[in-house]
Design a protein that fits this description.
Structural class of chain A: alpha+beta
Distance between the termini of chain B: 47 Å
Number of domains of chain A: 2
Helix content of chain A: 55-70%
Number of helices of chain A: 13
CATH architecture of chain B: 3-Layer(aba) Sandwich
Helix content of chain B: 25-40%
Shape of chain B: globular
Strand content of chain A: 15-25%
Oligomer: heterodimer
Order of helices and strands of chain A: HHEEEHEEHEHEHEEEHEHEHHHHH
Number of strands of chain A: 12
CATH class of chain B: Alpha Beta
Shape of chain A: elongated
Distance between the termini of chain A: 28 Å
Structural class of chain B: alpha/beta
CATH topology of chain B: Rossmann fold
Number of helices of chain B: 8
Largest sheet of chain B: 6 strands, mixed
Strand order of the largest sheet of chain B: 6-7-8-3-9-10
Radius of gyration of chain B: 18 Å
Strand content of chain B: 25-35%
Largest interface: A-B, 26 and 28 residues
Number of strands of chain B: 10
CATH superfamily of chain B: P-loop containing nucleotide triphosphate hydrolases
Radius of gyration of chain A: 33 Å
Chain lengths: 406, 247
């Protein structure tokens, strides 16, 4: 029998039992749809984390004091006071690959304006910090080197802070807000940045000259962290090496001893987070593919029942001249067509789910051609694999007893 | 002299049931020539079903030979037997064996699907022609469950005719029908016979056998009677029933 006739026969008999066909397909539809949706959502979240990170500055380098141990006791992160003005100056002046450096000292504070108050953190930075972290001033100005030198009580605030303190729509520029008991003048408002990849509000923020925070708030001379940016993303590893060299010499660390600081480049962070989200994607796809297997077994089950139920039909087909191979191919064809149609519907459904999810979760919509192609192949294989045994059973029937079967 | 459509020679069929051999056929020989309408009779257990299975190339004999249209089936493989069934034999079953939820014309087309020599466009034409032959041209798009028993059997007969077989094999083809419808079907068979079709008709009802031209009677796997008979007209018998009703 030629393949055209075969497909026609298979489609005819699938159409004869629309309800059963639809229900059998459902298993494959759900399986494929969940694989497609999961892979797509997983890739979208990887992509959104990546773009989030690069919006924080893809050439950013963070320098933190190393965790210290005293007498075998871990003193926790940022416990040491090793980063100071000398480090800042030498990084500003003696580097080739570093574009900008800003210190960071932070303090939690209660912000008060009129009757409103808001608990937030205040970050002491230099003017270069805006470039490094890709912040922009929307209104007013950023504080200057002059403000830094003079410990001026000026600050730049984020949109969230504006909305909490200036509830009646006042222009915050030029107003004085209090941090606990210390008054500070608002000279600029930052452009909105939204949430970052970890869900932190990047607009709930206050920047002030680092010297002001050091002297007037905390009474310290060291920095919590240093932020630097490399000339370009490609040079960030070189810049990190350079920074390591300078800091080691500044801190008088002998070769062989370990650093008393940690350097994180954004590149490392990206690759770490990507590998985590990649793992998540794989995991989701693996879980989803279990439903695909269940769907396949559903097909096998139905095909098996179908073969028994259609024993008489098989006997008749054999009596009127069907070869065993024709019978086997017919049932195989039915299960492959069943799973392929189910697969196509599943792919479409999966893409719709992924689209809706991307809109709901505010993520990019990623279509993975690879996942679509793979699901299609898996569908065909599912059809063949789970259709094989029932088809073989049908083909091996004896026409005489099949015709007599009641 | 008319040519032999089929010939069986010393046909034996032995089934093994447990440790015992059951002789279903014990050396049967006869031949059917072109244009004969033969009834094969016998009680259950007489071996007539076994004989029919072998005549229909569904089963092969344990000993002896069977030659259909000049082909000995002794040396044929399973697939070759399938092809032989497709080209040379038309089956009509007691319970019609139509595919459910499939129109009459599609049911009739079915054997042609397994015949690569018939192109797709010719398939429908031949099925329609076969349905016309059995008088069902107005029911072509009906499903089996929309047809009466007699009409379903007519569809089955059309299906048996569509491949233009050398012989029609009917297995208790009137067994599921009332007397009146049985006579209608027998009348159709007689029409086909008069058009030159060769028919072998297995039945256990003596009155049905009277509509054929020759009777072969089996008992315990052997032929006990093989003789031409005084053929009755099914159309007349039908008219007689109708008359009785009017009285």
């Amino acid at each position: 029998m030629n393949i055209g006739n075969l497909i026609k026969i298979a489609i005819n008999s699938l159409f004869r039992n629309k309800m059963r066909t639809a229900l059998t397909m459902l298993g494959i539809v759900i399986g494929i749809a969940s694989v497609i949706a999961m892979v797509s959502i997983g890739q979208a979240s990887t992509q959104s984390v990546k773009s989030e990170l690069s919006s924080m500055g893809s050439n950013m380098i963070m320098i933190m004091p190393a965790r210290q141990q005293r007498g075998g006791v871990d003193m926790g992160m940022s416990s040491s006071k090793t980063l100071d003005n000398k480090d800042l100056e030498s990084l500003q002046n003696n580097t080739r690959y570093v574009a900008a450096v800003s210190p960071m000292v932070s303090s939690n504070a209660q912000l008060i304006y009129g009757n409103n108050n808001h608990s937030s953190s205040i970050n002491g930075v230099s003017a270069a910090y805006l470039d490094i972290r890709k912040y922009e001033i929307e209104e007013g100005v950023m504080f200057t080197e002059e403000d830094v030198r003079r410990y001026n009580k000026v600050c730049v605030i984020g949109k969230t802070v504006v909305s909490k303190l200036f509830t009646n729509g006042e222009d915050p520029i030029g107003k004085t807000i209090r941090f606990g008991s210390i008054p500070m003048k608002v000279i600029g408002v930052l452009a909105e940045k939204g949430q970052n990849g970890m869900g932190n509000d990047q607009d709930d923020i206050v920047f002030a000259p680092y010297t002001t925070i050091q002297k007037r708030f905390l009474g310290i001379t060291y920095f919590n962290m240093l932020y630097a940016s490399a000339n370009s993303e490609e040079e960030s590893e070189l810049a990190a090496t350079e920074i390591t060299y300078i800091l080691r010499s500044n801190h008088g660390i002998k070769s062989g001893d370990s650093d008393d600081f940690d350097i994180r480049t954004q590149e490392e962070l990206v690759s770490t987070i990507s590998s985590v989200t990649g793992l998540m994607t794989t995991l989701l796809a693996a879980i989803a593919s279990i439903s695909l297997i269940v769907g396949g077994i559903g097909i096998m089950n139905i095909m098996y029942v179908t073969v028994t139920e259609r024993t008489k039909e098989i006997g008749l087909r054999m009596a009127i001249g069907a070869h065993n191979r024709d019978i086997k191919l017919q049932f195989l064809c039915e299960s492959v067509i069943l799973s392929l149609i189910g697969g196509v519907i599943g792919i479409i459904l999966g893409l719709i789910i992924a689209y809706v999810a991307s809109k709901l979760m505010n993520m990019p919509y990623v279509v993975s051609e690879m996942a679509i192609f793979a699901s299609f192949i898996v569908c065909a294989l599912t059809g063949i694999f789970f259709g094989w045994y029932p088809a073989k059973k049908a083909a091996n029937m004896d026409p005489i007893s099949a015709l007599r079967y009641e | 002299m008319a040519k032999d459509i089929l010939r069986v020679e010393k046909l034996e069929r032995i089934f093994r049931v447990g440790s015992e051999d059951v002789h279903a056929l014990r050396g049967i020989s006869f031949s059917i020539t072109e244009g004969e309408f033969v009834s094969i009779m016998g009680t259950s257990g007489s071996g007539k079903s076994t004989l029919l299975n072998i005549l229909g190339c569904l089963d092969t004999p344990s000993a002896g030979d069977y030659i259909i249209d000049g082909v000995s089936i002794k040396s044929l493989s399973k697939n070759e037997l399938s092809t032989l069934r497709n080209r040379k034999i038309g089956f009509v079953f007691q319970n019609y064996n139509l595919l459910a939820r499939t129109t009459a014309v599609e049911n009739v087309e079915l054997p042609l699907f397994y015949n690569n020599e018939v192109p797709a466009k010719e398939r429908r034409d031949r099925a329609v022609a076969a349905l016309k032959l059995v008088g069902l041209e107005s029911r072509m798009e009906h499903m089996p469950n929309q047809l009466s028993g007699g009409q379903q059997q007519r569809v089955a007969i059309a299906r048996a005719l569509v491949n233009d077989p050398v012989i029609l094999l009917a297995d208790e083809a009137t067994g599921n029908l009332d007397t009146r419808t049985s006579y209608e079907i027998m009348s159709l068979f007689q029409d086909l016979h008069s058009q030159g079709k060769t028919i072998a008709f297995v039945t256990h009802e003596p009155d049905i056998a009277t509509f054929t031209t020759r009777k072969i009677k089996l008992r315990d796997g052997q032929i006990i009677e093989d003789a031409p008979i005084d053929t009755q007209s099914a159309a007349d018998a039908l008219a007689a029933i109708n008359l009785q009703k009017e009285d």
